[in-house]
Amino acid sequence: MIFFQSLKSKFGLLAAGVLSVGAIIATQPALATSKTHTTVFNVKFGALTVGNLKFGVSVDGKDYELTGKGKTQGLADWFASGKADIKSDGLLDGDHLIAAKHYLSVTENKKKATLNMSFANGAVQNVSLVPDKRKTKKAKKYVLITPDDLKNVVDPASTLVVPVELGRATDPTAVCGRTYRVYDGETRYDMKLSYKSNQKIKTKGYDGFAYVCKLQYIPVAGHKRKHENTKRMAENNDMEIWLAPISAGTEIQSIFTAIKIVVPTWLGTFSAEPEYFGPAKS
What we know:
Layout: H1 9-15, H2 22-26, E1 36-45, E2 48-60, E3 63-72, E4 82-93, E5 96-108, E6 111-120, E7 123-130, E8 162-165, H3 172-176, E9 178-183, E10 188-203, E11 206-221, H4 228-235, E12 240-246, E13 253-264, E14 269-279
Antiparallel strand pairs: 1-2, 1-14, 2-3, 3-4, 4-5, 5-6, 6-7, 8-13, 9-10, 10-11, 11-12, 12-13, 13-14
């Protein structure tokens, strides 16, 4: 779902990581006067709140835009205080999306890192990283990225916008059954979603059901060979992203986004729990 692999350290774990069921979904409006949705997450490590994330999804015809702001708070030696700003946009194409631009800024321990990325027809066109450590990755230690790896990809934040053709919005396998080819400016990985269950969920702005999707992280390139953390993520079969419908739909699509994310790790369980899920407040 956010924040996953592209957001380093504590932000990154939740995004790799980095998203109304049956007849009940059918009662949710695919179109509404509001075209902008807001989700507010409390980010937790076990029972401790370690940060928050607020993101918005706007849809205007075939165009989508996702904006987000995240913040973590200091917690002993585990987390440093930090903040992140995200913006992604692109086009909706049936039950897929085509990324156009992605911006990420992460500030942690008074150090700032930025990523600007653009796409052309689904392929990475330009990447600007500050600092840029890509040249230090040698083939002996890293799986190098090839030009073909950068075709038909999206940025991590865009995976939080899940378009589904109207006639298939009540089919959980259509919502969850998808694989994203993701590039975060440094690494290429796949995010594979598959349907797991239906769950009731209630928060401010929403009282209904969500599709629970199993989330699998599949490293492709850009990562360190035989890296223990990469191996653990790839073998983690318990990650979940819960998807629920939002009001910013179109005439041909329903739009889903993450309402809850669960990422168990060897250190403990990270989760993004909803505080608000609904139309943007003026």
